[in-house]
Each structure stands twice: as structure tokens, then as C-alpha cells.
Amino acid sequence: MNFVIVLVALLGSVWLLAVVEGWTTTGRLRPAAPLLSGLAHLGRESIVPRTPDRVFFETAPVLLLIVAVLGAAVLPLAPTLVIADLATGALFINAALAYVLVALIMAGWGPNGAYAMIGGWRFLGQLIAYAMLIVMPITAVAMRAESLVTTVIVGSQDGLWNIVYQPLGFVLFFIAAMALAFRAPFDLPTAPGELGGGVDAEYTGVRLGVLRLARLTLVITLASATTVFYLGGWHGPLLPPWAWSLIKTLAVAVSMLLAGRYLPRIREADLMRWCWTLGIPLALLNIIVVGLLVLVVP
Amino acid sequence: MYAQAFFVAVFGLAAIGFGVVVFRTSSMVRSALALLFSQTAVGCMFLAMQTEFLGVLQIMMMATEMSIMAIFMVMFMMDPGGMGGMDMTHQKRFSIGAGVVAAGVAIVVAFWADWGPVTAEAPDAAMQTRALGIELLGRSMLIFETAGVTILTAMIAATAVAIPVQTTANSADKEDTE
């Protein structure tokens, strides 16, 4: 039952996010637009490029969707509303989302196109930049909760959310999550206007539809992870717990979209430099500060 | 119990299957990713054997490691896509012999070794994670720290070797790219 509820919540959030995205880009609020464009994808011809790596080409969009949903499986909407309350939940989400890289390399290599391939390998470089900034802030979160269980992590924020307890970790995680979801300004693998769509370039029809759905699901999963790790998950007054989870998740997802709209795309080399020379030392500092707080403050 | 044995067998066969694909394809990227999924299947075997932390860790680490290996194979091999029909195997007879002997030895050892009593009930996943953490920060700390520092030293040394020696001829290029 939890499985169905979480999937419906995920789909609903993706739909809302797509509506908001359309609203901010076209200026018109059209609730039916995501459904119509999804149907249009089904109707269009789905072209397969010449001499593709067929296995990769077909697997990539589906794999991206699966890993985004798997990541969401360990994130609780309410104290008991979680698909799998694993003892290693905070590690599991990293394991699932590591396969975003695999999916993008497949999507880049599969179609046998130059732009797609550059996009796919670019994301490998992007991973080397952001990966530590996902893992190290989560380490600090787990230190405070003294557990890797996601429901315990939310429970540990009762009274004081992690965004206040470890604001540095939140900022780093938020930026790294945007890089993981390859949203602007970190949309290097797709880079519209520069790589002609990158990994998206050779996909059409149904396959492109699945790829777009997977990208939006990934944003929602990461926004939900931000909520669980830093914004107190289901905690909040008056409204039921699941409502707070959804409201916070959507707020984070929309803020990711907005941040992307007002920032120019960052260069690969600059991203790498900032992440390694500034991001990782700050993440280490965050771990030290949280460690001291955990030991000193009762 | 039977379900557990079933899943261990399924993932074990998947690991072997992907392992065979590694050598059956001439595309370097396919080969690398087949190895990745073979290792992922080993991670799933860990999960089926109720060692949750090790399984999840294995599944996570292999995704990035094998992808990085894939790009190195693309960079250094002459026919990375396998579309030129190049044969990249060599010493076939010796390899087959060595492979059969090694597999035979492994099977004999597996059947003859005294594995000790079988644990009736695996401790729950949270306890395993805790026990692993205490092991890593206790008895095994020196080993892991030494290994970590050694790898870090090797990485720094490799990077230092890879940086080209700056001469007046190429200093202008360097400024352009910065």
C-alpha cells in the first residue's frame, strides 16, 4: 500500500513541477500541458540513429527512471509512510543515485552521436566534482542522528531542523543535489544551445518522454532527500505529516528551478575547481563543527 | 531459507553472465559496463545474504569506479566502440588453461574447506553496521588508514607525473587554456 501511495505522490509532484516549469518559462499557467506533451511524445515517431549501441540506447531512459524511483523508496513522507525503511537508508540513496551516472553514460554512448557522447562523458567529470559534496554533508547528518535510517534522521530534527543545526551542510548539499539532477546552472550533459541537447539530442518520441519524466522524478527525489535530511521531513504544525513532506519537497524543487533560471551555466573546469578547492574543505569543516556540537551540546 | 538460496543463485548466475559478456564484446564501454553490472549483481548477492551495509556499499562503489574505468578504456584503446572488428585477445590457449585450473582450484577449496558452524540467525542490519564501524575504528584501523594514505600518495604521485613539465614553448598554450 505504501508503495502505491508514494508512487502516486511522486507522480503528482512531478506533474506539479512540470506545470510550474511551464509557467516560469512561458508565463502561462496550463495544468494540462504536461499530460498533453506526454501524449504527444507517445504519438511522435521514435527515431533510432544509425549504428547505435541498441542495448544502451534502449536501457538508458528506463534505468534513469528506475534509479530516481529507487532513491525515493527510502525517503519517508510520514513516520510510517515509506516504501523501505532500510537500516542503511542514507547510504542506499547514494547507491541508487550513483546509477544516474551510468544511465547518462549509456544515453551518451548509445546513440552513436558526437554531442550525446560529449554530454555523457561530461557528466562523469561533473560527478567527480559533486560526489563528495553529496556524501560528506550526509555523513554530518547521520552523525547528528547517530543512525543511517531515514526515519530516525527525521526524528532527530524534532525541535531543531538540520538547516539551522548545520546550515553549511545544507548549502553544500543543495548545490550538489542540483548538480546531480543536472539542472541549470549545472546542465552540462544536456547544455541546450551549446551541445544541441547533449544526451537528449538523439532521443525522440516515447524514449524522450521517458527521459523527461525521469529527469523531473530525479529532481523530486533530490528535493525530497533535502527535505528529509535538512528541513525536518514531516515535522510541522496543524497539517498532517505527509502534507508537510509534500509542501517542503515541492518548495525545494521549485527553488531549484528558480535558482537555475537566474544563473548562467557554469564551466566544467570551474565547477571542478570550486567543488574541490572550496566545497570539500567546507564539507570537512561542517563535519568537524557538527562533531563538536554533537559531543559538547547535550 | 529457500527464497534466500534462490536469490543468491539468481544474482550469482547474473554476475557470471555479465562476467562472460565482458569478454564476449569488443566494445570497450559495453565491456566496462558489463563488469559494472556483474559487480552490482555481487552486491545484490550480499543483500540476499542479509549483509545490507556491504551490499549497498558494493553497489554504490562499483557504479563510479567502473564508469571511470570505461572512460580510460575509451581513451587508451584503438577501437573503443568495437566497430572496427579488431581482435583484442591474445594468448588464448594459455588463458583458457589458466582459467580452467583457477576455477577448479576455487571449487575444490570451496568444497573442502572447513567453513565452521553456520550462523542460525544473522544479526539485524543496524547491528551489523555498528559492528562494522567499531571494527573499522578499532582493530582494523591501522590497516585501513595505511591503505588509505598509500592510495592517496599514489594518486598525488600519478597526478604529479601527468602534469607536463612547463617550458617556454608550451607556457603560452597553458595560459590560453586557463
From TrEMBL, chain A:
The keyword Transcription regulation does not apply. It is a multi-pass membrane protein. Pfam families: NADHdh. GO terms for cellular component: plasma membrane. GO terms for biological process: aerobic respiration. It comes from the Bacteria. PANTHER family: NADH DEHYDROGENASE SUBUNIT 1, NADH-UBIQUINONE OXIDOREDUCTASE CHAIN 1. Belongs to the complex I subunit 1 family. This is NADH-ubiquinone oxidoreductase chain H.
Automatic annotation (TrEMBL), chain B:
The chain crosses the membrane at residues 6-25, 32-49, 55-74, 94-113, 142-165. It is a multi-pass membrane protein. Keywords: Cell membrane, Membrane, NAD, Quinone, Transmembrane, Transmembrane helix. GO terms for cellular component: plasma membrane. It is found in: Cell membrane. The keyword Cell membrane applies. It catalyses: a quinone + NADH + 5 H(+)(in) = a quinol + NAD(+) + 4 H(+)(out). It comes from the Bacteria. GO terms for molecular function: NADH dehydrogenase (ubiquinone) activity; quinone binding. Its EC number is 7.1.1.-. Pfam families: Oxidored_q3 (PF00499). Its main location: membrane. Gene3D superfamilies: NADH-ubiquinone/plastoquinone oxidoreductase chain 6, subunit NuoJ. Belongs to the complex I subunit 6 family. Composed of 13 different subunits. Subunits NuoA, H, J, K, L, M, N constitute the membrane sector of the complex. NDH-1 shuttles electrons from NADH, via FMN and iron-sulfur (Fe-S) centers, to quinones in the respiratory chain. Couples the redox reaction to proton translocation (for every two electrons transferred, four hydrogen ions are translocated across the cytoplasmic membrane), and thus conserves the redox energy in a proton gradient. This is NADH-quinone oxidoreductase subunit J. The lineage of its organism: Bacteria, Pseudomonadati, Pseudomonadota, Gammaproteobacteria, Pseudomonadales.
